[in-house]
Amino acid sequence: MSPETSRPALRTAEFIPLIALLMSLDALSTDAMLPALSAIARELGAARANDAQFVIVFLFLGLGIGQMLFGPLSDRIGRKAAIYSGLALFMSGCLVSLLASTFEAMIAGRLLQGIGVAAPHVVSMALVRDQYEGRVMARLMSLALAVFILVPTVAPALGQLIMWLAGWRVIFVTFLAISTVALAWLAVRQPETLPAERRRPFSPRSIARAVAEIVRLRAALGHILASGLIFAPFVAYLSSAQQIFQQAYDTGALFPAYFASLALAIGLALLVNGRLVMRHGMRRLCKVASTFVAAVSLAMWAGAIAFDGLPPLWLFMAYLAGVFMCVGVLYGNLTALAMAPLGHIAGVGAAVVTSLGTLVAVPLGMLIGQRFDGTMYALIGGFALFGAAAHAALRFAGSAGGAPGARHPRRA
């Protein structure tokens, strides 16, 4: 046993905020940028106003790639080394964006940031799994999640404040400072949780085998497709939120407050989902939630015609709050359902499931977001269309027979 793995574990009171910080870097690097999108596009010469959305979209694209890479890599080189590598990539991407003189350089930096920030998000969960299990693990993850939920409620306000005081480039300086703190905290205080004798070879072939097996398993593939489809219009919302609130609805400096209130709707759904699952089961909840998203969005799209595509802000907020609560219910449950038949390849399977779901959502979300024209037709129609498609994917997954290696819990 190496000196690194023989060090005593951190006390819970220190371990939880460290994990929450590592997990929340991706949300921070998404949401803090939102108030700056128009200024970045204008200063760096983006060809079209909607191109500003690429600052968010390419971060998500990087996340999709990085999730598939760093999960298996952490099994080979250790948890801390994998997070170090990811943070180094993230910080390099921040420097590229900070010094960007063209919009293309900005997007390249954001892609690097997305690939890198996938490591602390994904591998921090492995840090928890290595040390805890059962109810203790669930409690720790719940506490870390509670902190994580707070990030989208404060990050846009932080980004807007930095813009007012010093300009959008200083947002990337802030990312560099926070990631440096996370790196130092991890290096100095957190022991390695995966000893050398438990490490496994990193093999691109094992990832390819996992992808091939998931594609053959209808229960896994259907739930991944459902996850990607329902997340696609949410990606479109995130990438166009600044245009929606500050341009279409002219909320000005109140944009972060409106964004935060909708983020709390998702957080509330995540917090109550555990109780709902025990009572109703994951599949039933997902079917009801996807049906609600599709039906309410279709009605809202038809109703928007009366307002020339721009419903009153109060009505649009109420609609999004209901839809986002359903997205919160769907998010974790669909991942758990996709993982159910993959217990025999749980490690690499989890990385592939989350990565494939993101890679389905990003291009579809980009298509929706790029249709923004000052009205809400594209976004509401995207939730209606992809909510219905997600429901169809759930039915496809539910019609799976007894796939090899699959396990079907009685109350899934």
Question: Would you summarize the structure shown here?
Answer:
With 412 residues, the protein is mainly alpha-helical.
Description of the structure:
The chain has 412 residues and is mainly alpha-helical. It folds into 2 domains: 8-192, Growth Hormone, Chain: A, CATH 1.20.1250; 203-399, Growth Hormone, Chain: A. It has helices spanning 3-6, 12-31, 37-44, 54-77, 79-98, 103-131, 134-166, 169-189, 204-216, 218-248, 255-280, 282-304, 313-339, 346-369, 377-398. The two termini are 40 Å apart.
List the helices and strands and how they pair.
Layout (H helix, E strand, L loop, with lengths): L2 H4 L5 H20 L5 H8 L9 H24 L1 H20 L4 H29 L2 H33 L2 H21 L14 H13 L1 H31 L6 H26 L1 H23 L8 H27 L6 H24 L7 H22 L14
Helix pairs in contact: 2-6, 2-7, 2-8, 4-5, 4-6, 4-10, 4-14, 5-6, 5-8, 7-11, 9-14, 10-13, 10-14, 10-15, 11-12, 11-13, 12-13, 12-15
Indicate the overall shape. Answer: globular
Radius of gyration: 21 Å
Fraction in beta strands: under 5%
CATH-scheme architecture of the largest domain:
Up-down Bundle
Keywords:
412 residues, mainly alpha, Growth Hormone, Chain: A, 2 domains, 15 helices, globular
